Amino acid sequence: MSKATLEGKTISLEEAYRKAADILRSARFPLIAGLGADIAGARSAILLAERVRGAFDHLASEEILADLDVMRSFSMFTTTPNEARVRADCFLFVGPGLTKLWPSMVERLAPDQSPRHGAQAGAPRKIFWLGPDASEAKGVGALSINAPVSEISSLLAQLRATIGGRPITREAAGATPAIAEIAQALKSAHFGVVVWSASAGLDALAIEMLQGIVADLNVSTRCTGVPIGARAGAAGVTQAAGWMTGFPPRTAFGRGYPEHDAWRFEARRLVESGEADAALWISAYDGEPPPWSRADLPLITLAPAGKQPGHGLYIEVGQPGVTHDAVEYAQEIAAMTLRKASQSTATPSVGIVIDAILAEISEASSC
Amino acid sequence: MLTVLRGGHIVDPATKQDTIGDVWFQDGRIVAPPAHNKGDVEIDVSGHVVMAGAIDIHSHIAGGNVNTARLLLPELHRAVRARLVGTPLSTAKWSTYETGRLYAQMGFTTVVEPAMAPHHALQTHLELNDVPIIDKGALTVLGNDDFLLRMMRQGASESAINDYVALTVSNTHSLGLKCINPGGCESFKENMRAFGLDDVVPFYGVTSRQIFQLLQKSTQAVGVPHPLHLHMNNLGIAGNIDTALQTIDAAEGLPLHLAHVQFYAYGVEGKHGFSSASARFAEKINANPNVSVDVGQVMFSDTVTISSDVLKQFNSLSGAIPRKGAIFDGDANGGGVVPYAYKISNYYNAIQWAAGLELFLLIQNPEQVYFTTDHPNGGPFTAYPDLFALLMSADLRAQMMARLPADVLEHTTLPSISREYTLYEIAQMSRSGAAKLFGFKDRGQLGVGSVADIAVYKPSKDIAAMFRRAAYVFKDGERVVRDGNVTHYTRGKTLHISPAYDKNIHQRLDAYYAELYGLPRTIFNISEAALPKENAFAEVACRN
């Protein structure tokens, strides 16, 4: 049996839906944030944001937008984990903690096995790792270049220059001789694959440098990338936001149509500046709390059992793919898939809860 | 509820009507006039043209590559106005919701997304599900997939190939097969930068010709109503008319649909080495009734090219406007998204524009040529009304030609063509012919028993204005458009076929996915449970 509480006191679900609708309807500019949800949940949340003319943001937007900004201002080469697995003859992993961000990475990409397709089939792969965590590079048999994440950008710049035959300083070359080896390996690879994640701390400039390397290599050979998406359903939510509004999260409907602005519609800024006057926080995967410090904001929280916040209205929701079937963007195939519930319960999903709230808000009262 | 549209000019090629009359419908279907001749609802449409809802056979409206384009180009689709009541997100430009609204208000009621990758089919269906009002369908892409190429290399039997084709179409819930630069995308992964009809795919030892011929035969054998839908090699390259003509010969008289053929109608004449070869192309199509084509007309605008022809898209990247793009090596085809601007002052773009119109006007049978812009590759689908106007008015074409670079007219036969499409021919191309092409027995026409998808237009001197905003549109008998405005959403279906196959192929495929990818094949499954609401699909019958 699912539960809902208002300021810590148990209320019925029907009461909770009505109360949530009241809060959102009476707000001048409500915020729908967190958005840690499956596709059905994201879809309902975006329709709700549109109905109440609010803004929507995802809790990992910084990371989503680091990759997107590179694509929409530079270019982006990508492939699937399947293609990387069967074809790559050279892997370059970039950044720390990739195996934590994607626990099945090594199993999926199988760097220890030989590629299966192309002229490179059967030969061992070359594997490099720029700035790994303490032991993870050893786990995949990579030649690692140890560096803090803050230095990855300049190492990538050095690598790009080396690949392009442009000069670098003698000190830089001397400090990391392995860069020349990576450059040579990527240039002579048939199908090089770089693996990165903005969630490892790479910013847009580092990712652009990485994609610049890929673009340069494609002049004469093939090279592409496998991005590791951010937490809490970020990649799938971005896709749903894309087809529903044309834009990624950090989009708002204040004027009755979607406007995307990564600064204006950042959840924390909207709350802390007072521009948003109510919030619906969705974090169905793990109940991660909101990033803002204000406690006086009318708040509705959708989170799994045990993640009830200290104040406001709380409605318990199920965990996608755990307590209910859920469509998600699956990192292992770089595509949508239906995850069957591993321990099904009757706790409603984000989609069901939001649809119930939406049903309380008529079209006419939205504007 | 029995409804009658009174006194309209009915233009319905399937029933050979081009006359003033009444159209009756009830419970979502066209019905015969009742003896009592009295409708529960009577609508006077005298002075209007009444047609079946239009069918768009090739428009990229959904799927991962389309969504990449949305995210790549926020500047191309800024929204500007709030929506009407009852139509959430209908003014969110380039959203699935806006797509449904815009098609409906032009009188379109069925649209086919022509490039669904098997491993990304679920996203395509999620997006199609969020296109309101209209019915949808998709074509599944094969021809660069390892499983097929491997079977060819091993000399697998035709029946084994047929099982794979039928299973893939069936599992991905599509209307048939599309083949995009067969073998070319796989070869690009092996660093080939050009790929012709008889080039050999490395390591598989098969040619593009062999791949498409095999899929063409297989499509027929398993009873897919739509002929193989082929995106040929060498798209967009000067002199590629030779590829097109050789491809038609290679079809050997079997049914074949060639996609966006304008992009293959290029000769090498003139000082730019780029000319229209549409006259030769049209002559060939007229002589080969087994071949149907859609044009992929270029309309001058800022747009974006979206294609699963990754090789071609990679080669286009250096000419992107603005200079950016996305290149995706997928499990099979993948995709490339490259923005572009077609300018009337640009010699090459003007040749493309003229070559497309020549094809429309020189191909004699309107049920052999379709009106696409290959949305959004040649221009957006919202340019169809302008395209229909150009086809129906030689004067309008002359006005446009006067604005082209002067040397363009030396390398196209367009100025010599006086043909003007009639409304009947427009309806053949956009209704009766399109329905036949997909084996739809009960749409694209107003015959008794057909789906009551009906478009009513108010004639105007401005032909484009007439088609841009239908006076009325009925979807499944329900009025959804009045005076060019969508009044509310209805939920359309996604149409698909289920060709039969020998279930033994399941075992072979399970073993293949486990051995090569280390994955259960079911991870790529489409099930109705994955979509937001039940009854998302409607099945269309196969040929056998």
Question: In words, what does this structure look like?
Answer:
The complex is a heterodimer of chains A (367) and B (544). With 367 residues, chain A is an alpha/beta fold. Chain A has two domains: 4-60 and 232-366, Rossmann fold, CATH 3.40.50; 65-227, Dimethylsulfoxide Reductase, domain 2 (3-Layer(aba) Sandwich). Helices cover 36% and strands 20% of the residues of chain A. Chain A has helices at 13-26, 39-51, 61-73, 81-87, 98-101, 105-109, 136-139, 152-163, 170-175, 178-188, 204-217, 234-245, 267-272, 350-359; strands spanning 4-6, 9-11, 30-36, 55-56, 76-79, 90-94, 126-130, 143-145, 191-196, 222-227, 251-252, 259-260, 278-283, 299-303, 313-316, 326-330, 335-339. In chain A, the strands form three sheets. Chain A has a nine-stranded mixed β-sheet. In chain A, helix 8 (152-163) packs across helix 10 (178-188). Chain B starts with a strand and ends in a 5-residue tail after the last strand. In chain B, 30% of the residues lie in helices and 20% in strands. Chain B has helices spanning 64-72, 96-105, 121-129, 146-153, 158-171, 184-189, 208-221, 241-250, 278-286, 310-316, 347-362, 384-392, 394-401, 423-438, 463-468, 505-516, and strands spanning 3-12, 17-26, 29-31, 41-44, 49-52, 54-56, 108-116, 135-141, 177-180, 228-231, 256-258, 266-267, 275-276, 291-294, 302-307, 326-329, 335-341, 369-370, 454-457, 472-475, 478-482, 485-486, 494-496, 537-539. Chain B has one domain: Metal-dependent hydrolases (TIM Barrel), CATH 3.20.20. The model of chain B has no long low-confidence stretch (mean pLDDT 97). In chain B, helix 12 crosses helix 13 (394-401). Chains A and B meet through helix 2, helix 3, strand 5, helix 4 and helix 12 of A and helix 1, helix 3 and strand 16 of B.
